[in-house]
Amino acid sequence: MKLYDISLRRTGLSISDRLVAARRLDALGVAFVDGGRPSGTSHSRSFFGRAANELRLRVTTLIASGGPEDLPALLAAETPAVAVIVQEHGFSVLREAVRHLVRAERRVVVEARDFFDGWLADPEHALEVVLTAAEAGAETVLLHDTAGKLWPDQIGEIVEAVAETGVPLGFGCHDDGGAAAKQLLAADAGAGLVQGSYAVVRGGLDRVVPPSVHSAETGIAPVPCPRLEQTVSAQKAIGGVR
Question: For residue 31, what are the contacts with CB-CB under 8 A and spacing of at least 6?
Fold first, then answer.
């Protein structure tokens, strides 16, 4: 299982602190660090400009994220990978956005917002989103539990069903109750990439998510996750960024 950190989508840190955070997440072995939308504020654009010149990451791949409407800015960010966030976009829009980025030699992750609600309403349509993204060249389709209405076991069942397509999958959800349980069950069901705020930004990077599923959340015994356990060291490695 690979980790995809979205802590830096939040823009409260200075650019220098965000660069430091990216380096420290790289040292922890996080696969992807998402720097947010380059089409947003000038602060965000400046971050990607400095990242292109100053960051020399060993393990981590820096990602710029945004919707299909943000293509020019996503390309201008010059990150090796891009996350295309889709939510109620048509198949043709999704297909062309991914193809355009692939032609520009970018690795593409498609983040399908509200995927699970869409699956409950119309599984065939939701599955077509996944297949369209993969056929257009996305290397991973990240299924996002945006509304957070489903139980962890429901997440696992749906991810397992989608994984039968053979498309490489990821999973993401908001940091609400049961997030760790959902992450672990999604990974067990076939999601090879798990998105979360593994270093949480609070005027500095000062804590990480729990490395296991707690019984208070799930009603089951704690389930250890070796890859998440590695982030425990972030308590000291990332704490106190200035």
Answer: 2, 3, 4, 59, 60, 61, 193
Helix axes 123-136, 152-163, angle to 10 degrees: 50
pLDDT in tens, the chain (242 residues): 899 999 888 767 788 888 988 998 898 889 999 999 997 667 677 899 999 999 999 999 999 999 999 999 999 999 999 999 999 999 999 999 999 999 999 999 999 999 999 999 999 999 999 999 999 999 999 999 999 889 999 999 999 999 999 999 999 998 665 788 899 999 999 999 999 887 644 444 444 444 333 333 333 333 344 444 444 334 334 444 43
| pTM (2 d.p.) | 0.83
Degrees (nearest 5) of the Cα angle 58, 75, 174? 70
